[in-house]
Structures are given as C-alpha cells and as structure tokens.
C-alpha cells in the first residue's frame, strides 16, 4: 500500500474525494466474471464465481425477510471457500439479514455478526438457530390469537396497512414473541427467534401470505405515499389468519441444511467489535461485509414498520447507525470501524468489502463516489506500520437488474435525455485486503 498517507489539513470533501480516487487508482482491478473457480474444503466441491450461469442455487431461508441492499448468497459462498477453512471464523460486522453468517455455518465455519438494527439482528439469528420444523410448527400452533385486542394505542400509520382483524392478531403474536425472545430457556428463545424472523418478513409485501395491503416487500413505504396509492388504486387490506400465514411461510423455509458451524450475533456497531468478539478477536480468518452507502440506503426508515413490531423507534435506531451524507464524517467513522475490524483478523486473514456508489454534494456540485474509494482512504489512515495491510485487488461486479432488493435500490432503469428509459446496470466493487502483520 505504497503512498497510503494523506496530507495533513486536506479534509475538505473535495480534497478527500481526490485523495481517495488517487489511492484507489493504484490498485489492480479485475472483473467478477473472470474470477477462477475455488475449492471448498468442507464439501470438497468446486465453487464458481457468483456471476457464472447456474451458480445461484440459494437456500429458501434467504427469502425469510427481504431487505434492501443485500448481495447474492453465492458471492458469500465464493469468498468463504476462497479465503477460509472449515472450523475457522468468518465475521460480518454489518450483518444485515444474515447472508454471510448463514452461508458460513452451512459451510462448516463459525460465524460472528453484528448490526445496530434490531430487525437485522433478529433476521440473522433466525437463519442461524438450529430449530426443527416440528419445534416451529408446535410453537406457531400455540401462539395466542384473539380478535378482541384493543387497537386504540396503535398509530394510524400502522392501521393503514392492516385489516383490523389481522392487526389484532398481529398484536397478540407480537406480545408473545417479545416475551419468548428473552426467555431463560434456550429452546424457547431459538424457536421464537425463528418465528419472529418469519413474522418480520410477512409484515408487508404483495404475496398471498403478506399480512398487509399489497406493497413493497423489501421496505415499508411511507404512509403518505401509501394513502395516495390506496386511493388511486382502491387497494383493500386483506383479512388474514396470521398463524396460518406463519405456518405456510415456515414450510417454505425448511428443511434447514446441516449447520456444522456455530453463529453468534450481537446488536452493536462495527466499532464495538473488539469488545463483543472477545476470545475470537485476532482469530478471524475472513471478514465479508458491506458498509453503509453514506445515506443512500436509509435502512432504519425503510424498516419503520418492522421496528414498530419490535417496539423500537426507527428514528432512535437511525442515531446508532453509520448513515450520513458527509464524506468527512463517513471516512472518520469508517477509519475507527476498520481499525477495530482489522485488529480482529488474524495475520494472513482477509477483509472483503463490498460497496456501490452514492451521490454526494461537493461545493454545489453533485458527484458520484464509490464507497470502496472512501474505505481505501480510511484504511490508509490506519496503515501506519510498514506492510501492515496489503490491498490485493478491486473486483468490479456488474449486473443488469430486473428484480429483487438490488433492483429496488438502483431503481432498475435509467432515464434517457429523450425521455425514454433503458435497463440500468448495477455496479458494485469488492475490495480485497490482506493482513500481513
């Protein structure tokens, strides 16, 4: 990482972007489609790069709780196979809906994860708990359901999404789940966690099992927009049997694969990882993660309905997250987080950072900035010892978007000058860093 020293005093957004791009320009690049196959020593199988045809055979459990901004499970599998061995530790400090953690446990690795978002922590834990379908089915059947629960204290924005009979059931299920999530009995906690993850995935969407009126399944739209849309399209709030919907969705998520590795997930920021990893710090073979895209992805706001279910306020949750439109604040925060993350990685281990682009205002101009460039700048500030870190490559990942949360983030199309539209390409970059000492 020659030249990875920023000049003192140059901390204006324009200077930071210039320095970030200069540093990134020195890194060797390659395309994801050109990556060679690697061997997974757990399954003794060959793992192709995720953009190869036919390589997206994902387990149904990844559809438990759709969330904006996730990356393909096959991408996680590729780097887990390439940069870790069975029995080693894989860590995701911005674990989101748990893609990396679930894939690591099914590939014989031990997984650690962290996130500041309560809904993300629930989803990640739900995917990694060792529960059977009989446990889940018995638990769902015992859930108390009543149509007489009071709705007086429910916000009008929430009532907008649900038929009153459905909402009363939702409230009763919520009360029981929140009790069982902190039960002293591990079996009860694990089962409640799984069912809660399923419930969060059903709170809004457009499928026949979704509990809300037809809407986006990846994020909860703003109430104002929904009110207008309901009037224009005469949408109806469906009357659902919540237990039946939970049961049918759970059936689709089983059977779980044999998860050899164990998983531990914490509700905490990436900067706190040295505290919560404890004995695992310094022993992590691989970190795979995708940090926030400045303020492009408003996770807490998008999850306001799920956070209401968990009795959390999305505005308070947002205060704990790294979500900012300031380049300087983002680089400063990433410097602290990456410094802690790198200390958790063992010598010879790797950091795999996945990032897209975000628009920022710089001196009255709007520019697109690669998140990876800013991470490279942050890494340069902690690379004070000779040969401490080695940035090996930046992998350019490109795809045409046509569905899913990835499509939702990038809008799926570009507006041309003549007023027409064209398919929009999703572009992300993957930074590979090796710890040398």
What would you say this structure looks like, in words?
The protein is of the alpha/beta class and 437 residues long. The protein has two domains: 13-117 and 261-298 and 311-413 and 421-435, 3-Layer(aba) Sandwich (Rossmann fold); 133-253, no CATH class. It has 17 helices and 14 strands. It has helices at 13-24, 73-83, 99-106, 118-128, 133-142, 156-159, 164-180, 186-202, 223-233, 242-253, 273-277, 299-302, 304-309, 314-319, 327-344, 371-382, 404-410, and strands spanning 29-31, 38-40, 45-47, 89-92, 110-115, 263-267, 284-289, 345-355, 357-362, 365-370, 389-400, 413-415, 421-423, 425-435. The strands form four sheets. Strands 1-11-14-8-7-4-5-6 form an eight-stranded mixed beta sheet, with helices on both faces. Strands 2-3 form a two-stranded antiparallel ribbon. Strands 9-10 form a two-stranded antiparallel ribbon. A hairpin with a 4-residue loop joins strand 2 (38-40) and strand 3. The chain is globular, with a radius of gyration of 22 Å. Residues 1-9 and 403-417 have low confidence and may be disordered.
Q: Which properties best describe this structure?
A:
437 residues, alpha/beta, 2 domains, 8-stranded mixed beta sheet, two-stranded antiparallel sheet, 17 helices, 14 strands, 39% helix, disordered N terminus
- Are there runs of 5+ residues with pLDDT below 50, and where? 1-9, 403-417
Architecture of the largest domain, CATH level 2?
3-Layer(aba) Sandwich
In the CATH hierarchy, what is the superfamily of the largest domain? Answer: Vaccinia Virus protein VP39
Percentage of residues in DSSP E strands? 15-25%
- The average pLDDT is 88
Instruction: Give the overall silhouette.
Output: globular
CATH topology of the largest domain: Rossmann fold
Query: What is the number of beta strands?
Result: 14
Helix-residue proportion: 25-40%
How many helices in DSSP terms? Answer: 17
């Amino acid at each position: 990482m020659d030249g990875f020293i920023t000049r003192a005093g140059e901390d204006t957004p324009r200077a930071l972007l210039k320095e970030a791009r200069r540093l990134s320009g020195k890194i060797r690049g390659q395309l994801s489609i050109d990556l060679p196959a690697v061997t997974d020593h757990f399954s003794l199988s060959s793992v192709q790069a995720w953009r190869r045809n036919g390589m997206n055979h994902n387990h149904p459990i990844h559809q438990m709780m759709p969330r904006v901004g996730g990356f393909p499970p096959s991408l996680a599998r590729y780097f887990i196979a390439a940069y870790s061995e069975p029995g080693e530790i894989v860590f995701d400090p911005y674990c989101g809906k748990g893609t990396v953690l679930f894939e690591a446990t099914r590939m014989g690795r031990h997984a650690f994860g962290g996130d500041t978002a309560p809904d993300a922590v629930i989803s990640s834990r739900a995917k990694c708990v060792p529960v059977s379908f009989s446990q889940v089915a018995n638990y769902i059947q015992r859930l108390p359901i009543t149509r007489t629960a009071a709705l007086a204290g429910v916000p009008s924005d929430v009532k907008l999404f649900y038929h009153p009979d459905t909402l009363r059931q939702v409230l009763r299920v919520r009360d029981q789940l929140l009790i069982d999530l902190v039960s002293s009995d591990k079996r009860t906690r694990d089962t409640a966690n799984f069912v809660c993850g399923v419930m969060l995935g059903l709170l809004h969407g457009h499928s026949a099992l979704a509990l809300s009126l037809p809407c986006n399944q990846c994020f909860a739209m703003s109430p104002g927009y929904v009110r207008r849309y309901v009037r224009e399209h005469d949408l109806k709030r469906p009357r659902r049997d919540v237990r039946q919907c939970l049961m049918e969705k759970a059936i689709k998520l089983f059977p779980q694969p044999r998860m050899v590795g164990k998983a531990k997930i914490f509700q905490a920021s990436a900067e706190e990882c040295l505290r919560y990893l404890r004995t695992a710090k310094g022993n992590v073979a691989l970190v795979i993660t995708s940090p926030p895209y400045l303020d492009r992805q408003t996770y807490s706001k998008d999850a306001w309905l799920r956070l209401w279910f968990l009795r959390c306020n999305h505005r308070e949750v947002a205060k704990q997250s790294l979500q900012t439109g300031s380049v300087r604040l983002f680089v400063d925060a990433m410097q602290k987080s990456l410094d802690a993350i790198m200390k958790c990685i063992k010598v010879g281990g790797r950091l795999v950072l996945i990032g897209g682009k975000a628009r920022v205002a710089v001196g009255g101009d709007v520019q697109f900035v690669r998140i990876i460039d800013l991470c490279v700048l942050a890494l340069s500030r902690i690379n004070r010892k000779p040969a401490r870190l080695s940035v090996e490559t930046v992998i350019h990942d490109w795809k045409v978007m046509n569905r899913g949360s990835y499509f939702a983030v990038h809008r799926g199309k570009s507006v041309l000058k003549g007023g027409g539209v064209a398919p929009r390409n999703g572009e992300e970059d993957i930074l590979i860093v090796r710890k040398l000492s």
